[in-house]
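ZP domain-containing protein structure dump, as promised
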Amino acid sequence: CDSSGTMSVSRCQLFEAGFHSSNLHLKDDTCNGTIQNGRLIFRFDNDDHLCGTVLKSNGTHLIYENGIFNDVDTQRGIISRERDLQLHFSCVYSLTQAVSMNVQINALESLLISVLTCFVMYIKPVEVVDVFYVEVRTEGVDQHQISTVIDSCWATPDTNANNPIHWDLIISECPNPADGTVKLIQNGVSTVARFSFKMFTFTNSDEIYLHCNIHLCLLSSNSCTAVRTASLFKVYNSLGGPSIFVYSLYLGVIECNLFWLFCGNVFIKCNLG
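C-alpha cells r here:
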C-alpha cells in the first residue's frame, strides 16, 4: 500500500488461459502492463496516474480498489464465446493508529533533545520556557483525498504510553483546557497535523516522551475536523498558520515505515504497523 503501486501476474498463465498481455489493462483502459522477467506488471500512482483506482472507507479502514481487465469486442453479436478477465485487487490502510515518539527529552539545567541517526548523536538545548512544536505527517497516501487527524496526545516520564503518570496535551481532537499553552495549529485538513505547547518537566523526572492516537479521514466525508468553541478558534487563527515553524534546530532523520512524526526539531519516521 503506497502512493505508487504495482500488480503483476504470470504471462505464461495468462497465455495458457487464452489472454494476450497486450489486451489487458487496469480499470482505466489506457493503463497497460509491461513484460518483465516473465510477468505482466501494472503500475499506478495515486498522485497523478490513478488508472481508475477508487478510494473507499468502511469505517475502520481505507481501501484502494482496482482490477485487471481484458479488452472486449464491443461489436460482437447476440452471443459471444470470448473469455472475460476481471481480476480485482485492493490495498488496505487501518484508519486508527497509535504512535509514540521514540526520542528521549532530558532535563538537566535545560532540556536536551537527543537523536541517534547514522550512529551520530546530536544534542541541542531546549529551555523549559521554550515552545515545542509537533508535526505528525502521513506519507504513502493520496494527499488530495486523505487527512491526518490527531485524536489525542499526551506526555509520560518514560516510554510506557500507559503510564498512569501522564499529562494530556490534546483530548478529543482539542487542546487540553487545563493546559493553556497547547495550541492546535492544524488538524484534519491535510496529511499533516501540527500543534505546539510550552515545554515542561515531570516532578522527580528529567525525561519526557510524547504519544499520540491518530486516525486517517476521507476529506470528502466533511467530518475530519472537530467543532471547537469560538474562543479556541480565535486562538487557532492568531497563530498565523504553518509559517510559525522554525526549522533552524533540525537534527536528523530516523527512518521506519509509514508515518513521519516531527517533534520540536526532530523528524522521525514511525512504523505504524
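The chain has two helices and 21 strands.
lmk if u need the other ones
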